[in-house]
Amino acid sequence: MTTKAHIIVLGNVKGGSGKSTTAMHVAIGLIRLGYRVGTIDLDARQGSLTRYMANRFEYVARHKLALPSPIHFPIEQAKAATTDEQNQIDRNFLLMAFAELENAPGKVDFIVIDTPGAETFLGQLAHYYADTLITPMNDSFVDLDVLARIDPTSFEIIAPSIYTRMVSEQRESRYAQTGETIDWIVMRNRLSSLDARNKRDIGELLEKVAQKFDFRLSAGFGERVVFRELFLKGMTLLDIKEDPDHKMTISAISARQEVRDLLRCIGPETIKGYPQKMTSYQDRHQA
Ligand SMILES: Nc1ncnc2c1ncn2[C@@H]1O[C@H](COP(=O)(O)OP(=O)(O)O)[C@@H](O)[C@H]1O
Ligand SMILES: [Mg+2]
After folding, report:
1. Host H or E run for residue 234
2. Test site for ligand 1: of 21, 186, 188, 237, most ligand atoms within 8 A of the Cβ
3. pLDDT in tens, 249-282
4. Rounded to an integer, what distance in angstroms lies between the CA atom of residue 260 and that of residue 265?
5. Residue with the nearest Cα to atom 6 of ligand 1?
6. Are the CB atoms for 116 and 123 separated by under 8 Å?
7. What is the mean pLDDT of the chain?
8. pLDDT of 283
């Protein structure tokens, strides 16, 4: 099965790395660029993206705002007698959500999927269907082990992490079955303005890891307190101008620029003039 919509998956085995926050910002960012967007929350138990969306609907209704929102589906992991059965039900639900989003009257151009931190069948399946996979990671040496095991003294890459191996497997089977590729973007999150040395060291190491395991690096998001307040209101940095009690601070303006940089990194369709080719999306839309 291939979808016509471009699928963007947020994935990382670690919770708290910024998947749900980034999913919301990417979804609203794409809508603001004129695309129709659907969102799927596969981490329905935690439900951060679903709650983010609910906060938005409430805030928009309370303040009578005309803010755009995606069509949103939360999918909870099935309960069944056997794992096989459970996986089958999970698969059916995900494919149903794809079909629903693609066949709806205002069928979508992009589907943004938030995944749980732990490894579940649904999470892995979403990785298989990703055209773009975005992995946010906190900016520390500890968090690098999400991607690879690194020798602490020589800084040599010893082995891929379990997550990186899972991504490789999904990439291989996707390519074998459909001839399509998964564009993997790793994004550093919560970058501190202090500790420039640490930031540079991790950056250099990440470049090596990126080459070895074939992902691209995006510039990333700084550490910003504004994200918490935005979550509670269901707002994003891209709505700030229309938010009745907004504070247009320097920090918010820089943060908004970082979100736009990520959208630009995803591909040329999202912001005009970006030189990089995004094959799967283009191919599908030429057909
Ligand atoms: N760049 C950032 N600066 C400050 N706080 C952030 C940033 N990114 C995420 N957070 C906060 O960190 C927490 C976890 O983020 P979340 O997006 O829910 O992560 P995940 O979905 O990976 O578990 C949330 O409270 C969120 O507001
Ligand atoms: Mg989350």
Report:
1. none
2. 21
3. 999 999 999 999 999 999 865 543 333 434 333 4
4. 9
5. 227
6. yes
7. 89
8. 42
| Nearest-atom index, ligand 1, CA of 14 | 22
Cα(68)–Cα(239) distance, rounded to whole angstroms? Answer: 9
Kindly list the structural domains of the chain, giving each domain's residue range(s) and its CATH number in brackets, ordered by start: 6-282 (3.40.50.300)
Q: Which atom of ligand 1 is nearest to the CA of 230?
A: 27
Judging by beta carbons within 10 Å of its beta carbon (0-12, 13-18, 19+), is residue 65 exposed, middle or buried?
A: middle
Question: Residues with Cβ within 5 Å of ion ligand 2?
Answer: 19-20, 48
Take residue 150 and report the two structure tokens written for it.
Answer: 């690194």
pLDDT at 44: 85
Residue with tokens 């291989």: 172
- Give the count of beta carbons closer than 10 Å to the beta carbon of residue 106: 8
The rounded Å distance from CA 228 to ligand 1 centre is: 8
CA distance 265 to 194: 25
Percent of the chain predicted with pLDDT > 70: 92
- Ligand 1 pocket residue status of 256, Cβ below 6 Å: no
Q: Is 135 in the pocket of ligand 1 (CB under 6 A)?
A: no
Q: What is the pLDDT of residues 138-167, one digit of tens each?
A: 988 888 999 999 998 898 999 999 999 999
Is the pTM for the entire model greater than 0.90?
yes
- DSSP assignment of 61-93: HHTT------EEEE-PPP--SSHHHHHHHHHHH
